[in-house]
Amino acid sequence: MNDILLLVQKCAHTFSFYDLETKAALKHLVLPNFPHEFTVDVNERFAYVGIFGIETAWSRGHEGDHRIAEIDLVERTHTRMLDLWPYYRPHGMATDRDGRLYAMSEAHDMLLVFDEPTRQIVPNMAVPSGGVKTHLVTLTRDASRAYGVHLLSNTVTQFHPRDATVAPRAVMPGPRPEGNALSGDERTLFVANRGDDTLVEIDTNTMTCGRRVKTRSDPNRIYRTSAPDGRDLLLLTNSGERSISVFDARQLEEILPVAVNSYVFWTPEESRGMLPHRDAAPPGSRRAPGLRRPPVSRRRLALTGRGGWGKARGQFNPERFRGARRGG
After folding, report:
1. pLDDT at 293 exceeding the cut of 90
2. pTM of the model
């Protein structure tokens, strides 16, 4: 059986299942307008999709939505809606190994927590993120710390995802931080700044910035994977030039740039990440200098339509939906 790609197409307002080998669409589930990020629970039975409600983080004139769609990955059905009201625009999504679901309200900079998402409709806890326009959230493996990335305050905060009495700790890594990933030992948080095309490392113990290097144009996501020798590698998606950069995390140097002439879904084994996608290069356009085609197998590469976010997963079996693991 072939691998399955799970795909949110925010401009088509769908959650879809694709066969990675044949690239055939297996099923499209129509959702309310502009679903954005999604996460998969620890048992890999349900996906939870934030209904952002507006096209981009900078769209004006509408407050967005306040719901999360629950998707049964085995039955391939949209089962029900969870409700965050009065908190709007759920974007960053996460789950932990105890089965909890976390959704970040970008409109209100509030992390909403569901201890038992399959049994709840509304969250049982809300924790302030400590920043302004909180776009993404990353959890440590034991979910004892959360890192919020804030587009408008230009900060990254460390806070407890279930204890609002713990004061957030903030640092400013640069203009318009967004993409982020923890190192394998969780001692470093890597952050990509879209405002000045830089990659910055943050010491998670002291919450201070360390090394800073230039990236390619408009790096908007980071995913961690491992080299054959166990070293941490960082995959940066550069939406400004339709490329993926591979960085050695220890040296903080780019070791492999990859040209992307269409929409790509890259799924390293350790990552449940979702990558942004751009239109195919128009006739006559050229790749950025020094870029190469992706040296990946068809099991790790899929092409699809506009406005999508996706992740490749393994095949279903009666008890488990195998696939890539979270990489920070």
Report:
1. no
2. 0.81
